[in-house]
């Protein structure tokens, strides 16, 4: 089966101890059966640590320590399992993250998720239009062909981002609900939330004024960041559409994701008169971690976009 991936994918590398939002903190880390068997057969001090820090309740997983740290994340924010056993002894979720795979009838599409700050820098910092690479990437799947057409629309730099989004929605038979930022804030606050920083950002949407003209001038030479955000969301989510209604919902999700990240950026710039590339990466990371990486939140949002259409 052919593998498809964005041209930036091979350039991804974990920033390890330099990461400000370590993926070994704050996430439940499940252990697959094959790796669990390996861990259960390790002896010595490391074997004892493994036995003491693995729960077999429901899905086997590591028991997180204070501040939700993985018990094998050391004081330098490096993984003791890698240091003592090597990367090939990690459980599957640790090996893959933040990589994702979408298994489709004639292909596997691979990428890296925006919940990782290093992936965010790689994706949002790319200046050239993204190209999808892979052997024998031709397909007759109508949804994938439409998805790829949407990506070309989003990469048409003769048009402003807003016009590209309108063309995408029109092509997909989608419509972004006409809701205020306060209404969107209320909606997102009702969803499952992982971090209070996200809650505080959503609360800013309820009361903050926005200097759109000033922010747009500030971001004049950084429009590719929104293009790459949109292309990422479309690439990751649209090929999974089950039918035309689901396709429209996922197109609306991409548009909404861009709207939320743009609006939060505009609020922060209006408030601080500063909005850096790293600020953009952090907003995208929080949106991704809170929405994309919660199956419950994604289902709720996609269903709501169908209802509100």
List its traits.
14 helices; 6 strands; 309 residues; two-stranded antiparallel sheet; alpha+beta; four-stranded mixed β-sheet
Structural class: alpha+beta
Give, in spatial order, the strands making up the sheet with the most strands.
4-5-1-6
What oligomeric state best describes the polypeptide chains here?
single chain
Question: If helices are DSSP runs of H or I spanning 4 or more residues, what is the number of helices?
Answer: 14
Total number of beta strands:
6
- Report the sheet with the most strands, covering strand number, pairing sense and barrel closure: 4 strands, mixed
Overall description:
This protein is of the alpha+beta class. It contains 14 helices and six strands. The strands form two sheets. It has a four-stranded mixed beta sheet, with no helix packed on it. It has a two-stranded antiparallel ribbon with strand order 2-3. α6 runs antiparallel to α7 and α12 packs antiparallel against α13. The longest helix has 29 residues. The two termini are 36 Å apart. The model has no long low-confidence stretch (mean pLDDT 92).
